[in-house]
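Re: that chain you flagged

S.,

Sorry for the slow reply, it's been a week of failed gels. I finally had a moment to sit down with the sequence you sent. For the record, here it is as I used it:
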Amino acid sequence: MAEGISVLEALRERLRSGELTPAEAMAEAQRRADVSLSELPVCLKDGKAPGETYLWRDADAAIGYAEALPGRFADAADRPPLYGIPVSIKDCFDVAGTVTSCGSRFYAGEHRPASENAWIVERLLAAGAVVMGKTHLHQLAYGITGENEEFGDCLQPRDRTLLTGGSSSGAVASVQEGSAMVAVGTDTGGSVRVPAALCGLAGYRASHGLFPEEICWRGGAHLAVSFDTLGLLFGDLRDGPLLGSAVFGLEMAAAPVGPKIGFVGEEFIDDSEPEVMAAYLVWKLRLVGRGAHLSRFDAEFWELAREIFMPIQASEAAAVHHGHFDQFERAIGERLAWGASLPDAELTGLRMRHKEFCAKTDELFERFDFLLLPCAPVSRLVAGEDQSSTRARILRYTAPISLAGLPTVTLPGELVGGYFGTGMQLVAAKGRDAELLAFAAATVG
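Prediction finished late last night. Pasting the structure tokens below so you have them in one place:
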């Protein structure tokens, strides 16, 4: 990642120069998609076949769209920033003419083909991108492992003994396998950050409320409106500012010089694997080497995040999927039923605590420009092993950021010589997305 220019930038140059046409780029991307899993040397639980990266993909249509792209953007000197770039869309967003499944066979049968594209899809098309297809996800985007009983568990193309993490499972797999240069995901409780970390990629979780709800979620399926936000997965931190500008319209910002970064102490992350702790140390050293000033902050109040986050999330998800709980995986159906059972008085108290939590977290940014902590206490989720306790363990690391609605970039552990799968969360104050992306990009090299 740290040598030369990024893979995305190299592809952009080839497309700009005419060395490669958009149709040729898309044809190559299609050849990389959904690499055959028929000879996979692992047996997943219950004998299920592993899931592929894409739940919907039409290679001929994508190549046909790419062939028409030079005509749509005839002025070669004024082509948009993602001209000809293959992108993937998480299958909880509408793509015109396709059915949005949300990772559920029930919804795949119930939903009609979309009549128009989701807002985020229109943003990408306007930027010149070409949609590869719609990607696998943890059912209803309500899980962190990438397991899916109906469509198969999503495995990492790089190492098919490992789960991708979720819920943006196919999104991260599409970038890792090279069928997409950029993948659209969502992040409610860590669904962009964690897959990015486990798969050695960069991830960007946008500030909650970056755009008005009625705009950015048009054509998108919610899980929990209080926490859901859009996100991107990509291969190189250096591409973050470009993507933030091209997709979300963020103004390019200069990387802060000598920022103050607060980091959580070992008492908060004492259940982390040694590999995660080692990568955390090396990332702190890298940031100091980039001129940052690091100091520890007391994260004790973050221990309360899960007990606030999980019931609010379950209640809001239950409202979205009311009447269909028995159509989903048992564990998800049970979470939804629990959410529906919560008394109004309890939820009112939780929402008050949520506001107090946000205010206290916001106070940290009176002292710091950024915060740093691992994305997860683990570096790998082995396919076929019992992951029933994984969600709660990981949410302890991600839920504080979700509650506060903060923008986050996943810093890959491998970039600093860390073990594969050991990504860190670099967190900024709400609305400081551009500065965050710029500083993350500046840590490379």
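What I noticed first: The two ends are 9 Å apart (CA to CA).

Talk soon,
D.
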